[in-house]
Amino acid sequence: MTIASSSPPSRLPLGAAEEARPKPRTDRAGARETRGDGRLAAVFLAPALLGFTVFLLWPTLRGIYLSFTRFNLLTPAEWVGLDNYVRMVHDPIFWDSLTVTVEYVAINIGVQTVSALAIAVLLQRLTQSAVLRGVVLTPYLMSNVVAGIVWLWILDTQLGIGNEIIAGLGADRIPFLADETWAIPMIALINVWRHVGYTALLLFAGLQAIPSDMYEAAKVDGASEWRMFWRITMPLLRPVLAVVLIMTVIGSFQVFDTVAVTTNGGPANATNVLQFYIYGAAFGRFQFGYASAMSVALLVVLSAITVLQYRLTRAGQTDLG
Amino acid sequence: MTDTAAVTAPTTQAPRVRPLRRRPSPGRIVAWAAMAAMVLVTLLPFYWILRTALSANAALAAHPGDPLPVDLTTGGFERALGLQSTEEAIAQGGAGGGLRFWRYLINSVVVSTLITVCQIFFSAMAAYAFARLRWRGREKMFGLFLAGLMVPTIFTLLPNFVLIKQLGLVDSLLGISLPTMFMTPFAVFFLRQFFMNVPREVEEAALLDGAGKIRIFFRVMLPMASTPVLTLGVLTYITSWNDYFWPLMVSYSHSSRVLTVALAIFRAQTPQTGYDWSGLMAATLIAALPMLVLFGIFARRIVSTISFTGIK
């Protein structure tokens, strides 16, 4: 099979449309519940189905296929079986890169979840200000690229205001993004800055579902805010928190933009996150097959994490009943 | 499953009783302090962008900690927009020409508008078919769409790049827009939820008046879902505006360069004197401002939709 075959995707929507066409319409006049709308549904569904098939389903299958090939974009893909996977397992840079990514995700998600939870609770218990909810969202309006460049400037060793403040306090300047130990935590925090408000609003949405009379009742009983948080908020928020966690962890594993504009993978591969390594393999060294194999590995890791988190946090159940 | 249903909370907006306490407790003072710190960390970088963009590079190096713009100038903006000559730019600490942020701004507007308008419209059509039309295989097909939610976007990028290349659309605005122009599983899923909540009676009344289902979709369903459509639209616009990885793969030249890619290129050109921070921050502001304005216009509706339905 060569990669150049481009017709299969377009066949599927038509087939699906045919399948969707039910028995002939009999009654034109009435709004009878039993009447099928197959033909109309096919029309309404056609564009989305075309997009789904060509740009989601087909690429997913093709990505898996490419992972078993040697492919440099110029010549047709050549089937090599498990070669890419064997190479991946023996590639120390791949494992380094996976380790760096996991470190990034741990810091990013850890700090972000705790901060978002704190902000969400403050937005619920302290004030109902819609303005503050808007303010919290503003960094999310920036691109990762903008956030990365702004913080690159703020954290600049010589001229950045961050280091000016540190020097003003009498401490040594820290080359945050040029230092092997600092770079990953800093990139993780930059992305916390951009995403924490959005995450907080998602959690806030979950908090809105908790009946306020539960807090009133607890207050009458003399419970402190701290106790209410652990006894009411946390148990009832758990399903929402679980879904938000799954979403953010999946997003976090795909970090690329911020690394690309701040450290470019360096210093000495210290921030060579998986997505960055994959990009380099594909567009720097034109090893699309190997890059695809690593993408499949990432996909497997993400699926495993999703299933695991879903199980662990019992996301499907809610205590509210 | 990254199922949004669980986040979708019922909109129980019980009226809240304002705490009667007159004297703030120590706990409340700490909480307000935390809130204030959070707001500062959130907003100060924006001020710092503006302050730097309006400063001259030489003065920035001499007064790195000055809270106000130093040696006030619009040189940074002129460089970003390509209004300065190469000599002028280099004299002011720039990398000398080659930047056309007007062009990139227009490219970003074209791509984001194309993606948003088409994606929301096509997704709404599909969502209507899933929510209200009767056809065989509907549930199975919807299950397939839902499964699509679980494929991380990043996984499809490499194969999609190969496809776009084979279609000869590399380095074109259409090539950047195409993969997300037709639908996202999330948009379909999200809009379906809203269409399902439109009371059947409304639709039936229109049917009895002789309206066809196409007419019902345009005249009844879409208007009734205007707030979620608007929120989804603005968020889609922001997402496509901010996307970097995909345009980076597809775009090679000025003609298809969007703001995010241009910014990264600008950042990578380091003049001999060190970064052109003033120009970079000016360019950053040009890239960020349209989204701040867009959000400013619709903020109230978006914030309430997100914070009461948990869109994502």
From TrEMBL, chain A:
Cellular localization per UniProt = Cell membrane
Q: Where is this region: Disordered?
A: 1-34
Which part of the chain is the ABC transmembrane type-1 domain? 98-309
Q: Which GO terms describe its cellular component?
A: plasma membrane
Gene3D superfamilies cross-referenced by the UniProt entry: MetI-like
Q: Which GO terms describe its biological process?
A: transmembrane transport
Mind telling me which residue stretches traverse the membrane in this protein? 40-61, 104-123, 135-154, 182-205, 236-256, 276-308
Key words, A-Z: Cell membrane, Membrane, Transmembrane, Transmembrane helix, Transport
Protein topology in the membrane: Multi-pass membrane protein
Question: Could you name the domain of life of the organism this protein comes from?
Answer: Bacteria
Q: Where is the composition biased (Basic and acidic residues)?
A: 18-34
What family is reported? Belongs to the binding-protein-dependent transport system permease family.
Name of this chain's protein = Sugar ABC transporter permease
TrEMBL record, chain B:
Where the record annotates domain ABC transmembrane type-1, the positions are 105-298
Q: Where is this region: Disordered?
A: 1-21
- Where is it located? Cell membrane
User: Keyword annotations for this protein?
Assistant: Cell membrane, Membrane, Transmembrane, Transmembrane helix, Transport
Alphabetized InterPro entries for the sequence: MetI-like (IPR000515), MetI-like_sf (IPR035906)
State any GO CC term.
plasma membrane
Which CDD domains is this protein grouped with? TM_PBP2 (cd06261)
Q: Which membrane topology term applies here?
A: Multi-pass membrane protein
One GO-annotated biological process of the protein: transmembrane transport
Transmembrane residues, as ranges?
29-50, 104-130, 142-164, 176-195, 216-238, 278-299
Q: Which domain of life is it from?
A: Bacteria
Give the record's family classification: Belongs to the binding-protein-dependent transport system permease family.
Q: Which PANTHER family match?
A: ABC TRANSPORTER PERMEASE PROTEIN MG189-RELATED, ABC TRANSPORTER PERMEASE PROTEIN MG189-RELATED-RELATED
Name-wise, this protein is Sugar ABC transporter permease
Species name: Streptomyces dysideae
Question: Lineage from the top down?
Answer: Bacteria, Bacillati, Actinomycetota, Actinomycetes, Kitasatosporales
